[in-house]
Design brief:
The chain has helices spanning about 5-35, 40-55, 80-85, 90-120, 125-135, 155-175, 175-190, 195-215, 215-235, 235-260, 260-265, 265-280, 285-290, 295-300, 305-310, 320-335, 350-355, 355-370, 375-425, 435-440, 460-465, 475-485; strands at about 430, 445, 465-470, 470, 490, 505-515, 515-525. With about 525 residues, it is of the alpha/beta class. α6 (about 155-175) runs parallel beside α8 (about 195-215) and α8 (about 195-215) crosses α16. The relative contact order is 0.11.
């Protein structure tokens, strides 16, 4: 057999293995998205934003339409919504099922090709293992991850960050530096408009990459790209960046105390105290769910690749492996830095590790190639498959639990739409539960909800608006009804139940009630 024939056979094998990994990634992600798409509340909010951009002539906005109170787009970039706004609503619903699976599958292809072309002496089975680990990385399938509840920009953020890491390497080791700099700036520009957590990752990891490894490429791209982002989008970009800064400040001073710190005192104290107390005193399902959402346990059990990557393997000499290891270490440092009570306002710490998943998988497979590859790779493959099916079991349980309430909310939605049509009135909606409001946002209604925590809602700041997230206080609810002349209000019975009382009300009519929800139609004098 000639050398050319052998090379052709090897190339065909590489293509086949990458296509198999692509298909596995798509199918695995699709199965989870299909089950969870109707269970989360964020999906309806994304549909709402897509619809508003479509109605705005496919132009971005800084003030959110059809929110009755003050509402801005801090920490909510719109590029994905802008692209989807060119599709018809029924097509968007279909695309929402395959968007994240496709992005995850493209991530597989990109990382397989990078491994093949940027590392010397690659065995064909290595490519399949790279693709398989990315396709079945257990952290990607966490049952409560927003990336699996329909439309989400998180998978795109991971894809863009991974592409930026590759571009950074190409800039350092190849001659066409200017081209790679332009590519890096373009990727950062897309991140500014696509995913908030990816923004935090490239800013903070860029600082660490420069400070620890004297690699300032990412940070340079960040600064150039933000200027381009502002020049191109002007009003939207300035408002978005300003409001995002206010959002981070409000999260640190108010939201964290009311939200994440109230739900979980410390992710470190969990390991030595809180989890064991809950296992002893609470139902098993509730306490296991609490442990399942602990950031440290997520990293330890759902992302073994980062743990392998940060171990001090001194025999790594392959430049691309070293580069990916450096980035992964920086993201792990960010995980540690943001895991303390005083720093958790910067988001769930495990998501920095998630952003480095593809880089740490590259390093893991590279390390395995130096040792007993088949044995350790087989163990990790089995582990990933086991965690995938266990988490799909959790997804099925979650879907069954949420499904009943979802059916009830559909009845509530039909009741409100029928009533408003009969009365020929535009719906001005409010609920004493933030999550309930979000579930209805695919409707063409006006909504009163605390969209911008850096503002005030009916005179209340974030901390005084909630008694326990996502439930609003009775005092705020009474103010909202009057200030925004709400004509349809839904009370979640997990919060307070109260018939609206106000001198300005002419009609208060109960139009729906079951064991979970109570719905009133209001008419004002």
């Amino acid at each position: 057999m000639t050398m050319e024939a052998t090379n052709l056979e090897n190339l065909l094998l590489v293509i086949i293995l990458i296509l198999i990994a692509f298909a596995l990634a798509f199918v695995a992600t699709y199965q989870q998205v299909k089950k969870l798409k109707e269970c989360g509340s964020d999906h309806s909010v994304h549909l709402f934003l897509i619809d508003k951009i479509r109605n705005n002539g496919h132009r971005l906005f800084s003030t959110v339409p059809d929110i009755l109170n003050e509402a801005y787009l801090g920490a909510f970039p719109l590029f994905v919504h802008y692209l989807l706004s060119f599709l018809k609503p029924d097509v968007v619903e279909k695309v929402s099922l395959i968007l994240n699976p496709l992005i995850n599958a493209f991530l597989v292809v990109m990382m397989c090709l990078s491994y093949y072309y940027l590392i010397d002496k690659v065995a064909s089975e290595d490519l399949f293992v790279v693709g398989f680990f990315i396709a079945f990385c257990p952290q990607f399938y966490h049952a409560f991850s927003a990336r699996n509840f329909g439309i989400s920009s998180r998978p795109l953020g991971i894809l863009l960050i991974s592409a930026l890491v590759i571009t950074n390497y190409l800039y350092q080791y190849y001659d066409e530096q200017f081209i790679f700099l332009i590519a890096g700036v373009f990727l950062c520009y897309l991140i500014w408009g696509s995913n908030t957590f990816a923004q935090q990752t490239f800013v903070l990891s860029g600082i660490l990459m420069g400070s620890i490894y004297s690699d300032w490429f990412i940070l340079v791209c960040v600064f150039i790209s933000v200027l381009i982002f502002i020049l191109i989008h002007k009003k939207y970009a300035l408002s978005y960046l300003f409001r995002t800064g206010l959002f981070i400040y409000t999260y640190a001073t108010q939201i964290a105390k009311t939200y994440i710190l109230k739900q979980r005192y410390s992710i470190w104290r969990d390991l030595v105290y809180d989890i064991y107390v809950k296992l002893k005193n609470e139902p098993a399902t509730k306490s296991i769910q609490y442990a399942y959402n602990n950031s440290i346990l997520i990293v330890l059990f759902l992302n073994p690749f980062i743990i392998i990557t940060i171990l001090p393997f001194n025999f790594i000499e392959e430049p691309f492996l070293v580069h990916c290891q450096n980035f992964s270490i920086c993201c792990f440092i960010l995980f540690i830095m943001t895991s303390f009570r005083c720093t958790r306002f910067l988001g769930e710490p495990e998501r920095y590790v998630e952003m480095a998943s593809s880089s740490s998988i590259i390093v893991t497979v590279g390390l395995l190639s130096f040792i007993d590859f088949n044995l350790y790779a087989a163990v990790l493959v089995a582990y990933c498959l086991l965690l995938y099916f266990l988490q799909m079991f959790v997804v099925d349980k979650l879907k069954a639990h949420v499904g009943r309430k979802k059916n009830t909310l559909q009845k509530v939605e039909e009741t409100i739409n029928l009533s408003s049509k009969e009365k020929c009135e535009q719906v001005r909606f409010y609920s004493n539960s933030e999550d309930v409001t979000k579930m209805f946002m695919n409707n063409d209604w006006g909504f009163a909800r605390f969209w911008s925590p850096d503002t005030k809602f009916a005179g209340y700041n974030f901390q005084s608006a909630y008694y326990q997230f996502p439930f609003y206080t009775r005092e705020l609810s009474n103010e909202v009804l009057e200030q925004y002349k709400i004509n349809y209000v839904v009370y979640d019975k997990n919060n307070f139940i109260d018939e609206p009382h106000n001198p300005g009300l002419n009609v208060v009519k109960k139009i729906f009630e079951d064991k979970d929800y109570l719905v009133y139609r209001l008419e004002w004098c």
